[in-house]
Amino acid sequence: MPNNSTRDQVSAMEGDGFYNRHSAMQAVGIAALISLWKAVCRTVPIDEAPLTIVDYGSSQGRNSMAPMRVAIDILRDRRGASVPIEIVHTDLPSNDFSALFSALASDDGSYMMGASNVFPSAIGRSYFEPLLPPQRVHLGWSTWALQWMSGSAIDAQDHVLAGMSALPTVISAVAKQQTSDWRRFLQLRSQEMKPGAKLVAGFTARATSGTGWEWLLGELWSAAGEMRELGLLSEAEQNHLTIPIGLRSLEDIKAPFIQTGYFANLRLEHVDLVKVSDPCWEEFERSGDNRAFAKLHADMTRAWSGPVITSLISPSRERNELVSELFARFERRLSESPRPHEPYMAAVVLSKRP
Ligand SMILES: C[S@@+](CC[C@H](N)C(=O)[O-])C[C@H]1O[C@@H](n2cnc3c(N)ncnc32)[C@H](O)[C@@H]1O
What angle, rounded to 10 degrees, do the helices at 65-79 and 24-43 form? Predict the structure, then answer.
C-alpha cells in the first residue's frame, strides 16, 4: 500500500518558479533521454484519439517542454495535424502549479507556443495513488522524480541522503521502501496505460562505482556538521536531516521483471545508466570563477532539496534562517573544492502488453 503520509514527508520543489530557473542539471539528463523518447513516440500504437500523454512528477514544467514538443511533433506526423493531444502534468499537491501554468502560457520554449488542439492540464496527487481512469494513457514520461521515496524510511546519522548512508539499518530500510515503491508505481501506471502504451523514465540511480553525488551531497552533509559543531543544530536535528531519496541499482530496477519478463503486464524494454555531465563545468574551466560555479550548484541543490530540508526542522525553530545558513556554508564549501558533479541517471522504457 502507498504510504499515506507522502504529503507530510515529501515536499515539492522550491516554489515561485525557483526550480524552473535552477534545474539545468536535470535538463542535461533529459536531453540524453530524447532519442529513446523519439523512438517510443514513433512506435507506440495510436489508433484512437484523443492521444493522452502523462508527465509524472512534472514540477514547474520547464524541463517537460522540450520532450512534450517532440512528442506532439511526432504524433502529429503520424496521425495528422489536427489530432487532439492532451498532456497531463502530475505532481504532489504542494507543487507550484502556478509556475507550471505560467510557463505553459509564456515561456519561449512552451510546447503551447503556436500549438493548436493541444490540451494541457494538471493533477495534484501523489503517483503512488491512482491518477487516471483505466487504460487512458498512450505515453508516459517521468524525469528526476522516481528516486523520491513515498515517505521517510528512517533517519540516517551519517548522511543527508537516505540512499547514501553506509549504515546497514538505513541501507535495508531504504531498499525495502524503494522495492515496494517501484512495484506500486508500476502497478498503478499499468492500470492507466492502454494496451501497447509506453512510458519513459529517467531517475537518479546507482552505478557499481558509486552514485555521482558523493562530492556535492558530502559537502551538504559537512555543512550541516559545521552547524552542529557551532551549536546551531543539535545532534538530533542534524541526524533528522535525511532526504527521503534512495538510489536504485540496475538490478533493483530489473528485479520485478526477472521471473517472467513481465510485471503487472509491463515489460522492461530498455534500461541503462547514463552519466550526466555537469552543465556548469565548462564555463568554470573557462572563467576559473569558483564562486559563480559554487552558487550555480548551491541554487540547483536548494531548488530540489530546500523545501524538504526545511520540513525536517521543527517549526518551533527559525528554520528558514537555518536553511539559508546551511546553504551559505554549503556554497562556501563548494567554492573551496570545485569539481564536476556527474550523477548517474537510469534511463528506462516500459511497455504494456498489447
Ligand atoms: C527534481 S523534480 C523533477 C521535475 C521535472 N520532471 C524535471 O525533470 O525537471 C522531482 C519532482 O517529483 C515530484 N515528486 C516526488 N514524489 C512524488 C510523488 N510521490 N508523486 C508525484 N510527484 C512526486 C516532486 O514534487 C518534484 O516536483
Answer: 10
